[in-house]
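Handout, section B. The chain below has 336 residues.
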Amino acid sequence: MANRNPSVCFSLIAGLSIGIACAVASAQSADPVQASSSTSAPLAPAQAPAPAPISATTPLAFPTGVVSATGITHTFLAHSPVQGKVYKIAANGDIAGAYTVGLKGEDSWLLPNGRLLASYSGGVREIDPATGAITWEYKAGPGVEIHSCQPLPDQRVLICECGSKRLFEINRDLTIAHEIKLESTQPTHKQFRLARKTAAGTYLVAYGSDAIVRELDADGKTLQTFVVPPAKNPGVNGGFRLPNGHTLVTGGYGAAVYEFDASAHIVWTLQQSDLPAGFTLHYLGTAQRLPNGDTVLSNFQGVPEVFEVTPDKKVVWQYHNDKIGPVSACLVLDAP
């Protein structure tokens, strides 16, 4: 399996009525149309009082449905690859919207024009949430899997393909603007997960079961390698560049998230032993660093499915809802 990076590409807009989640289907699970318009400045983040963190000794119960003893403090998007939908979750835990994007999608974005850009197993689609109509689509060839997409500010879309082993920027007329050949000895499904273009013009590519994230230049040369520590089920799902130059890396089935400094040294880690009784980490897919320093994580097939932690690893809130299925990715909307 495989932040949103607030420093690159389209900023996410608070309070818009579609949902999405940032990206990761389990490795164990089972014609283009007219393009859209583009950029717009992000709205200011909503300010909400922070609840008291949950103590590491606080027992948690997770019945069917929404759970958070302290209340959810953000509106966010949750991607359900098994259902093939993206959900918008309101701050009170209600499902505020549900949008069909295609099965086994692992990456989705809220665009400034209110539409949704999302990957599915065989391609990438832009969808009008008001009608469900597909307003733009790229379809991959046979034997290819897509786990990642990213909207770029010049109307291009960054796509990473397994099988064909390539990372490319595609125009809305479906011509390829730039392409990098990738290398992997893994079987198709385990080759790559999320990829991100940084503000510096480099690319962070998660090499799935190789358990590394590589930063590549425009020619595909490796500039930096982020290697996660050994784990029972090693892997990575995504690398997310932070404003301070650090990089968050989610470990997939390794069930941990790591923050690397600019020299690729680990300076912060979150894992199972850091969390309260009742938490079960299974597959960490996306990691989003908020302006206050907290981190929001998606926990595919785990309990809870989405949660926020402080820099000192205290849980601020958590969300679990059996009705929406396992969540591969999440994205807070009321944060830049």
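Note. The longest strand covers residues 145-151. Compare this with the example in section A.
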